[in-house]
């Protein structure tokens, strides 16, 4: 099977949609601080089924259930370090199991969410946690190293709200030598922390590990401009997987506003440089199937 890097040289690649909404649609309660990561322990089969739904819809890459999975978060639920690390590794194994049930090239991206995801208070949409780059590096390094041991095809450093956290993640990614993409959460043409995207994407140009960069879990209307800036500033293939539209209410743990994911926008994203394209929260297998049907192959 070709590597994901080789595939990106030839054509756009389809990502999955939101893991959490597919699990919720199957009846799972995710109102827990571990979010979908709780099911790594409580119901791993549900995660495999959700991945498989996206593969069958046309996704070629699925993102693991490790976005909100941290040693600290699992410790709060009574798991020791060894158990927490085993659950992190399980996230990759479950995605691999789903990939083995479908034909054609399939890849696994191990999710690494921002520090704010562990806080479970919506701060990943704001950033600026009051931590230094070194402190953020110390937080992220252990789980990134554990995930890398499972040899995912790529690390998905995703929903990153500010440049300081991106710098910390790039240090680690370049050290451990596993290919990675890094995507920012954005508002307009700035990170959610308010930094210009030109500055944010310029960080990627010098990274050895980063194979692609872009945006995720943003408004679909913000994607086109961000893709253009990412392609121009980083010199790398661009990732785009917005949410379904609306705004996350971190206190109530619900999305507000109407969905606005429209595959008619995809041609513009591809023209601007997007090569890894999918959806995030509120985007399900039906939307991914429509997206796969319109992407050039």
Question: Main attributes?
Answer:
two-stranded antiparallel ribbon; single chain; 13 helices; transferase; TIM Barrel; 297 residues; 43% helix; Hcy_S-methyltransferase; globular
Question: Can you characterise this structure?
Answer:
The protein is globular and about 50 Å long. The protein has a single domain, classed as Homocysteine-binding-like domain (TIM Barrel, Alpha-Beta Barrel), CATH 3.20.20. It has an 8-stranded parallel beta sheet. Strands 6-7 form a two-stranded antiparallel sheet. Strands 10-11 form a two-stranded antiparallel sheet. The protein has 297 residues and is α/β, with parallel strands linked by helices. 53% of the residues are buried. The two termini are 17 Å apart. The longest helix is centred in the first third of the chain and has 19 residues. Helix 4 packs parallel to helix 13, helix 6 packs across helix 8 and helix 8 packs across helix 9. The chain is built from 13 helices and 12 strands. A hairpin with a 4-residue loop joins strand 10 and strand 11. Pfam families: S-methyl_trans. Keywords: Metal-binding, Methyltransferase, Transferase, Zinc.
């Amino acid at each position: 099977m070709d590597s994901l890097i080789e595939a990106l040289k030839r054509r756009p690649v389809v990502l999955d949609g939101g893991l959490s909404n597919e699990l919720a649609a199957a009846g799972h309660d995710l109102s827990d601080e571990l979010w979908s990561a709780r099911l790594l322990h409580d119901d791993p089969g549900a995660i495999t089924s959700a991945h498989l739904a996206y593969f069958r819809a046309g996704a070629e890459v699925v993102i693991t259930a490790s976005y909100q999975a941290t040693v600290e978060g699992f410790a709060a639920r009574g798991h020791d370090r060894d158990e927490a690390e085993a659950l992190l590794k399980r996230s990759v194994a479950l995605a691999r199991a789903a990939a083995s049930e479908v034909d054609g090239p399939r890849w696994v991206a191990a999710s690494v969410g921002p520090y704010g995801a562990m806080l479970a208070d919506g701060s990943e949409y704001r950033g600026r946690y009051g931590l230094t780059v070194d402190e953020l590096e110390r937080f992220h390094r252990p789980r990134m190293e554990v995930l890398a041991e499972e040899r995912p095809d790529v690390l998905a450093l995703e929903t990153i709200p500010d440049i300081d956290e991106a710098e910390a993640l790039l240090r680690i990614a370049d050290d451990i030598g596993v290919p990675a993409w890094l995507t920012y959460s954005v508002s307009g043409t700035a990170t959610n922390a308010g930094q210009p995207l030109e500055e944010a994407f310029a960080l990627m140009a010098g990274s050895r590990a980063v194979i692609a960069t872009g945006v995720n879990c943003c408004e679909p209307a913000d994607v086109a401009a961000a893709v253009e800036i990412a392609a121009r500033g980083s010199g790398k293939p661009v990732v785009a997987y917005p949410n379904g539209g609306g705004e996350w209410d971190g206190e109530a743990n619900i999305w507000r506003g109407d969905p606005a994911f429209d595959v008619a926008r995809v041609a513009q994203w591809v023209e601007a440089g997007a090569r890894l394209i999918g959806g995030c929260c509120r985007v399900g297998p039906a939307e991914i199937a429509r997206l796969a049907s319109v992407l050039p192959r």
